[in-house]
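Input record (one chain):
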Amino acid sequence: MSKPKLLFLCSRNQWRSPTAEALFQNHPRYEARSAGTENGARVKLTAGLIGWADLIFCMEKKHAARVQERFGDFLGDKPLIVLRIPDDYRFMDAELIDLLRTELSAHLAL
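The corresponding structure, as predicted from the sequence alone:
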């Protein structure tokens, strides 16, 4: 049986979404990737990534709005979940990791 695929999105794919992706590296239950919704993102969101994902987590409402605006035709009935995590953290910041775990525990079996 294949693992559920999680896609984490923030603006530039520098701090928040890569941290979330890193939390699931070698996870026994989930597979994860991350991308950014901005043109200058380290890894830019594509229709292919939307297609790959089973669950899509956006750090802020504006990311969900951009996904719906640009990739609405590819979303289908995939859940688009807003975590409400502001751009106040650096990569692998301990506070960010705690916040991600707290927010994700409502949606995933961690």
